[in-house]
Design goal:
Blueprint: H1 4-9, H2 17-33, E1 40-46, H3 52-69, E2 80-84, H4 87-97, E3 108-109, H5 111-120, E4 125-131, H6 151-157, E5 159-166, H7 180-187, E6 191-197, H8 207-217, E7 232-236, H9 239-253, E8 256-260, E9 274-277, E10 280-283, E11 304-305, H10 307-310, E12 315-322, E13 326-329, E14 334-337, H11 357-376, E15 379-387, H12 390-402
Parallel strand pairs: 1-5, 1-6, 2-3, 2-4, 4-5, 7-15, 8-11, 8-12, 12-15
Antiparallel strand pairs: 9-10, 13-14
Length: 406
């Protein structure tokens, strides 16, 4: 099976004009501020699928090539790291590093080990590039040996220049809860610049489909059935049929998987836990391979992936299961997440700085819709969506019957 995630991150020669412009701008910022007295921070914004990770990988390759090979470069013999707080993405980055003569696997680290090692050795990096910065912890996590309050702050303390990729619509846990206000409260203490990528490169769909997804996941509204043109977009009320159709896509194109919101029972133990709907029963992802990402294992066509195994990765066809916690109120035309039905209890651990139940409920609801946003933007060629909630299922039936809504 083609390693689409690795291929995508390696597409330096296929960068768009916008991506090349941003890549050059980031490089010039690094060179300009490498000798500053104080840290300099760049926040790289962009929605899922705009190519933030691709640009970041291209930038890091350039940094390490010049650091190790170009004695005439201002970056020669600089110490640089790429970090991401995502176990599956670390595998991909390390796999890429192992195939490049000027990249070392030790250049790629998760944030906590990198912070702790730099602190222990009283070292400072020249450049730290952070992918999926919205996954950085914003509170202590004793279990993972992070004892400070904010991973971004700790990385800035230990680097001359920090490039951080950020999308607050991909925040998935209360312990790493970010929004633009929290980010700005940190940036205001440093010289910094904000850059945004806008072009959509993962989902090869017409604008109508992308708008439909954003209306659903961000505005929480159900809108007219989109014009799909060459993109395969389908709404299902029968999960077993969606699974059959997706397996056919997998046989023809490969890399087609079921993925789901986290409102079905799951525990971190040695037992299988199942997603069960009428006529359908498949286990959650399990037996995670430490070296090979979940979607690249052929047997996982008979499993259902979680947000944690699929974030940051491409699928050819994504079959998204919207579980019973994603509900619909027809009279208000409003998608309503139900946090009490969410089974990812780790995602909802209460924070000391979230004092009211109303505040925590709002954050939980946002995390659930962020997960929906991420899941709906995995499919390159096509997207299938199943609704478990009866209200949403009924709305899907109406859309399928009339190809219009409201």
């Amino acid at each position: 099976m083609t390693n689409r995630a690795e291929d995508r991150l390696n597409q330096v020669k296929q960068l768009s004009c916008e991506q090349k412009r941003v890549l050059d701008e980031l490089y010039e910022i690094i060179v300009e501020h490498l000798e500053d007295d104080n840290p300099y921070v760049v926040k790289l914004d962009g929605d899922a699928g705009t190519g933030k990770s691709v640009v970041l990988m291209a930038l890091f390759k350039r940094l390490q090539l010049e650091s190790r090979k170009h004695s005439d470069s201002p970056l020669y013999q600089t110490t640089n790291y790429l970090t991401v707080n995502h176990a599956e993405m670390i595998k991909i980055y390390k796999e890429i590093a192992g195939k490049e003569p000027f990249l070392y696997k030790k250049d790629i680290q998760k944030p906590t080990p990198l912070i702790n090692r730099l602190q222990k050795n009283n070292e400072k990096a020249d450049v730290v590039v952070i992918d999926e910065g919205h996954l950085l912890l914003t509170q202590p996590d004793r279990y993972n040996k992070f004892n400070q309050d904010n991973q971004l702050v700790e990385l800035i303390k230990r680097a001359q220049i920090v490039i951080v990729v950020f999308d607050d619509h991909q925040v998935l846990k209360t312990k790493s809860f970010w929004n633009q206000q929290k980010m700005q409260s940190i940036l205001k203490f440093y010289s910094h610049k904000e850059i945004e990528l806008r072009g959509q490169f993962r989902v090869q769909a017409p604008p109508e489909v992308l708008t439909w997804i954003d209306n659903f996941a961000k505005k929480r509204q159900l809108t007219s059935y989109p014009q799909t043109k060459d993109y395969d977009f389908r709404l299902y009320t029968d999960l077993s049929q969606m699974y059959v159709d997706l397996k056919q896509k997998n046989e023809k194109y490969g890399l087609s998987r079921l993925i789901s919101t986290a409102d079905y029972p799951y525990k971190m133990d040695d037992r299988l836990h199942y997603i069960i709907e009428p006529g359908f029963k498949l286990p959650w992802d399990h037996d995670i391979n430490p070296h090979l990402p979940w979607a690249q294992r052929p047997e996982t066509i008979d499993e259902v992936g979680s947000i944690y195994t699929i974030q940051g990765f491409d699928l050819n066809y994504a079959g998204v299961i919207l579980g019973p916690g994603i509900t619909y109120n027809q009279s208000r035309n409003l998608i309503i997440p139900k946090p009490d039905k969410y089974q990812d209890f780790e995602a909802f651990k209460k924070r000391s700085d979230q004092s009211t139940n109303q505040q925590l409920l709002k954050i939980k609801s946002q995390i659930m819709m962020n997960a929906v946003n991420v899941l709906l933007k995995r499919g390159v060629r096509g997207l299938c969506i199943y609704a478990s909630d009866s209200g949403l299922k009924g709305a899907f039936e109406t859309l399928n019957a009339n190809k219009s809504f409201g």
